[in-house]
Amino acid sequence: MTAPGPIGLEPAHKEGESTLIVAERFGVEIPTFQGEGPSCGHPALFIRLSRCNLTCTKCDSKESWDWSQFDPRKESTKQSVAELLDWASSSPVELVVITGGEPLIQQAKLLPLVRGLITAGKRVEFETNGTIAPVPELVADGVRFNVSPKLASFGVREDKSIVPAALETFVASERARFKFVASTMADLDRIAELADAHRLAPVWVMPEGTTPEVLIATTRVLADAVAARHWHFTTRLHVLAFADIRGR
Ligand SMILES: Nc1nc2[nH]cc(C(=O)O)c2c(=O)[nH]1
Ligand code: SF4
Ligand SMILES: [Mg+2]
Questions:
Q1: Whose CA is nearest to atom 8 of ligand 2?
Q2: What are phi and psi of 180, to 5 degrees?
C-alpha cells in the first residue's frame, strides 16, 4: 500500500519502496547530543522507530509502542529510506542513533538505511534491548550496538528480556557494549550475575531517572559501587540539559 499524500499530490513514497515505521526523528532542525553511553556528549541525530517486543513498566518512550495509551495513527509515520537518508545527509552531524521502541524489529528494512548512512560518511549506534540478534549484514564497519538488557526491577519478566542466544550474538559481534539501567545496589548485583553468566563486556551502568533530581540522587547511590567493580558509568545528558522533553 502507498502512503496517503496530500490530495492531488504524489504519495510521500512510491509503491514498493522500502519504508520504516518511525515514531520521531530529531537532531537536524534542533541540534542535540547523544545523551547516554560511550558517545555521551557527541552531537547526534536520532531516528526513533515504533514498536517494541517488550512492555517494561518503567519505559520512558511508551509513545513508540504502547497503543493502550497512545494512538499509533498520531504517534507513528511511514518514512522511506530515501527520505530518512536525505534528512540525515542535510546535517553535518556524523553520529546517527537509531532507537525505539526496539529498532531491530525492523532490521531487514534497516539494512539499506544503514548502508546509505555509512556511505554518506555517518556512523550508526543502535539503542537495542538485546533480545533480537542482529543479522550478519547489520554487523558492519561504522555500526555499534548499545545493548540494554532490562532487569526485572524495570518492570519486565527476565524470561522475556534476557535472551541468551541474542546476547551471545552481540558479544560475538565485538561491536556491542552492554548498558544497564540501575536504581539500586541490588540492581548492580543482578547486573554482575548477568554479565558473568553471559560474558557481557564492556559493562556500562546508567542511573535511572527522568528528572535531574532523581538522576543525581541515583548517581550518588550507585557511583562508588560502579567504580569499585571497574565498570563504566554514564549519565543521561538530555535529562540534565533539556529536561527529557521529546525531540532532544
Ligand atoms: N539526547 C538523547 N540521547 C539519547 N540516547 C538514547 C536515547 C533513547 O531514547 O534511546 C536518547 C534520547 O532520547 N535523547
Ligand atoms: S525494551 Fe526499551 S523501548 Fe521496549 S518497553 Fe522496555 S524500555 Fe521501552
Ligand atoms: Mg529517551
A1: 59
A2: -105, 135
> To 10 degrees, the CA torsion angle through 24, 152, 163, 18?
-10
Task: Please check whether the domain covering 19-180 is classified as CATH 3.40.50.2000.
Answer: no
Which of 231, 241, 120 is CA-nearest to residue 180?
231
Q: What is the ipTM of this complex?
A: 0.98
Whose CA is closest to atom 9 on ligand 1?
Answer: 99
Residue 32 has pLDDT above 70, yes or no: yes
Instruction: Identify which of 39, 52, 54, 99 to mutate to test ligand 1's pocket (most ligand atoms within 8 A of the CB).
Output: 99
**Residue 135 DSSP label:** P
| 232 φ, ψ (degrees, to nearest 5) | -90, 155
Model pTM? 0.94
The alpha-carbon radius of gyration of the chain (Å, integer) is 18
3-state secondary structure of 137: helix
Domain boundaries, the chain: 19-180
Euclidean distance between CA atoms 53 and 12, whole angstroms: 28
Long-range contacts of 115-124 (CB under 8 A, 24+ apart): 115/140, 116/81, 116/85, 117/85, 117/88, 117/142, 118/142, 118/143, 120/85, 120/88, 120/89, 121/94, 122/88, 122/94, 122/95, 122/96, 123/94, 123/95, 123/96, 124/95, 124/96, 124/97, 124/98
